[in-house]
């Protein structure tokens, strides 16, 4: 293996300057076209819009450093993608069914302090979701009445009032790490799979809601906003 080939290959000074110019031009075009889409930030991107961004990147990447790829054809691709985006979003605004197919639908993740089990389409990374809860100062599921995973990936939360907070599954990392199939003392425990809280007397038990047997001692602290 030649380190010269790895880092430089046939690169010469003139083309290095050209790469800088190409990159500045294409990056500026990307910023302008993204501004024309009307989006404000990455957190607002739907799956369709992520696909559009990937298309932008693919069209803009090669002209930055490939000698044989001209800039104008890539600009045509970028403009075409922009027009496609504008057309699809306009039609989606006129047709709710098409919008639902394109963007997906919001999904209920938590109801009444427990994870939703009857949604076959529900698919999320639990660790990431628990991190979202912690960012909203949530210590356990008993503080949450409803949690909805939006099509943008954001989580909408509706809380119990202080007087209605009930025992729930802790979400803090050090506490959550103590989950176990063996129960050392009787008390209220939360199923780590579905969040159901039950009073358990024996050394082990199976959740009557999801038939799992991994538990974590429930807590009922109030939310501090």
Automatic annotation (TrEMBL):
Keyword Cell membrane belongs to the record: yes
According to its record, how does it sit in the membrane?
Multi-pass membrane protein
Gene3D superfamilies recorded: bsu07140 like domains
Tell me where the transmembrane regions lie.
13-34, 46-65, 71-93
The cross-references to Pfam families, in alphabetical order and at most eight, read:
DUF421 (PF04239)
PANTHER family this protein is in?
Answer: UPF0702 TRANSMEMBRANE PROTEIN YCAP
Protein name (Swiss-Prot/TrEMBL): DUF421 domain-containing protein
Lineage, top ranks = Bacteria, Pseudomonadati, Bacteroidota, Sphingobacteriia, Sphingobacteriales
């Amino acid at each position: 293996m030649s380190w010269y080939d790895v880092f430089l290959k046939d690169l010469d000074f003139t083309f290095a300057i050209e790469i800088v110019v190409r990159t500045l031009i294409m990056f500026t075009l990307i910023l302008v076209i993204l501004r024309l889409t009307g989006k404000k930030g990455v957190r607002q991107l739907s799956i369709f819009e992520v696909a559009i961004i990937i298309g932008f990147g693919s069209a803009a990447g090669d002209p930055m450093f490939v000698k044989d790829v001209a800039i104008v054809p890539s600009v045509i691709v970028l403009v075409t993608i922009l027009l496609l985006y504008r057309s699809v979003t306009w039609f989606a605004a006129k047709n709710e069914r098409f919008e639902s197919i394109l963007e997906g639908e919001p999904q209920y993740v938590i109801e009444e302090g427990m994870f939703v089990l009857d949604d076959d389409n529900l698919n999320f990374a639990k660790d990431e979701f628990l991190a979202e809860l912690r960012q909203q100062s949530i210590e356990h599921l008993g503080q949450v009445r409803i949690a909805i995973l939006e099509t943008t990936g954001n989580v909408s939360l509706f809380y119990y009032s202080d007087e209605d907070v009930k025992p729930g599954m802790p979400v803090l990392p050090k506490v959550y790490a103590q989950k176990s199939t063996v129960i050392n003392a009787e008390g209220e425990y939360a199923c780590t799979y579905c969040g159901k809280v039950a009073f358990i007397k024996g050394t082990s038990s199976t959740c009557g809601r999801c038939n799992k047997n991994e538990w974590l001692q429930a807590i009922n602290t109030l939310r501090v906003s």
